[in-house]
Write a structure and sequence with these properties.
heterodimer, A: mainly beta, five-stranded antiparallel beta sheet, globular, B: mainly beta, four-stranded antiparallel beta sheet
């Protein structure tokens, strides 16, 4: 049972435009969500997180939006840069559970 | 500052051989420690996690085991590797009060 879903395996965007990466979850017990960026043959790097009590968190070019009623979150990157090209993972955790559950990732390609 | 070391970076092992991957964390005490595997098309799969010395929780029944002999050391092992054990193995840590986990650089294991 996949509790965190990233339904788009890939996304291609033009440099300077907005990238929107989506994530859906099924477990209502999740109370925080994170986005990671991963280059090939490297470990994931933490980007930004959001608590379930918020609906938006912003850090520079990165903004995460959370819609609890829809069990949906998204990562917006504005403006997109070629260096943003990577696999982006959505993750969730919560309660007394020490685990982070990850989605399958979305490959973002930003074209110059 | 905290750092995480994971080695080796790449490993080619024959089927039936043993495995030992090591991960150490510096600059923090009593971290939560995790082993993940990234297989093609399957995202980041949690294998084991530990909240203290000698405490191991297994997420997926498999050919692997984990141990935590010291507070900041986490070891992934196998007595006899299978072809299906090939993948990219990632160690991660986080504190018990933060939400974000931090990953090592990963080990690319190829079983031949």
């Amino acid at each position: 049972d996949q509790q965190v879903k990233q339904n788009s395996p890939s996304l291609s965007v033009q440099e300077g435009r907005i990238s929107i990466l989506n994530c859906d979850y099924t477990n209502s017990m999740f109370d925080y969500f994170l986005w990671y960026k991963k280059y090939p043959a490297e470990g994931p790097t933490f980007l930004i997180s959001i608590s379930s009590i918020k609906d938006k968190n912003e850090d520079g070019r990165f903004t995460v939006f959370l819609n609890k009623s829809a069990k949906h979150l998204s990562l917006h990157i504005v403006p997109s840069q070629p260096g943003d090209s990577a696999v982006y993972f959505c993750a969730a955790g919560g309660g007394s559970n020490y685990k982070l559950t990850f989605g399958k990732g979305t490959l973002l390609t930003v074209n110059p | 500052s905290q750092t995480i070391h994971q080695w080796p970076a790449t490993l080619v092992q024959p089927v039936g051989s043993p495995l030992s991957l090591e991960c150490t964390v510096e600059g923090t005490s009593n971290p939560n420690l995790y082993w993940y595997r990234q297989a093609a098309g399957r995202g980041l799969q949690l294998l084991f996690y530990s909240v203290g010395i000698g405490q191991i929780s297994s997420e997926v029944p498999q050919n692997l085991s984990a141990s935590r002999p010291q507070d900041r050391q986490f070891i992934l092992s196998s007595k006899k590797l299978l072809l299906s054990d090939s993948g990219f193995y990632l160690c991660a840590w986080r504190t018990s009060y933060d939400t974000e986990a931090f990953f090592g650089q990963g080990t690319r294991l190829t079983v031949v």
